[in-house]
Write a structure and sequence with these properties.
binds adenosine-5'-diphosphate; 44% helix; single chain; alpha/beta; 5-stranded parallel beta sheet; 6 helices
Length: 165
């Protein structure tokens, strides 16, 4: 049984992330989507909120489980017996960063390999920052995040804008 781990910040999840999750869930038997707690300082959503958003949009994919973690991603992979790490590649700019993470992880945990899924062209430009920026100026974010979570994302961005969080 192939177990995969898709780690990231997911602040918030976008159609780009969802596309990677859907495709990865067909490659492995079980896919853990893991929200990194460490980077929370600059995050808009708490790790638990980010998990909830991911759970809402992946509810119909039976072999996907969402969790949060802190510490080394490879340690999490070992804990869950995952041998495949999934990451997405949008553009050349992602490559350098992703390559160094993958090589570092491989140096620490040679039994774990990283598989890169190239972005769906429709979402090549899309990032969590795009969602936050467009949302902040009250632009239409329905092109960026699934319908189930639009209101929650909008509300959070609004709170931030009003200085309530
Ligand atoms: P991180 O902070 O770990 O980069 P992100 O949540 O920004 O976390 O992204 C997690 C992973 O998903 C990364 O490998 C990133 O390249 C990938 N990703 C993000 N947006 C897209 C997209 N639109 N298409 C494909 N992959 C994406």
């Amino acid at each position: 049984m192939a177990i995969g781990l898709y780690p990231g910040s997911f602040d918030p999840a976008t159609f780009g992330h969802l596309d990677v999750i859907k495709r990865a869930s067909k490659i492995v038997d079980k896919l853990y989507v893991a929200v990194l707690v460490n980077s929370e300082k600059n995050a808009l959503f708490t790790a638990e909120e980010r998990c909830e958003l991911l759970r809402k949009i992946t509810a119909d994919i039976p072999n996907v489980e969402v969790l949060s973690y802190s510490g080394l991603t490879v340690e999490l992979a070992r804990q869950y017996n995952a041998t495949v790490m999934i990451r997405g590649l949008r553009a050349v700019t992602d490559f350098e960063y992703e390559l160094s993470i993958a090589q570092t992880n491989h140096a620490i945990a040679p039994e774990i390999d990283t598989i890169f899924l190239t972005t769906n062209l429709k979402y090549a430009y899309l990032s969590s920052s795009t969602v936050k920026e467009v949302g902040f100026y009250e632009g239409d974010i329905s092109h960026f995040v699934p319908e189930e979570i639009i209101d929650i994302v909008k509300e959070k961005i609004n709170k931030k804008k009003l200085g309530l969080i």
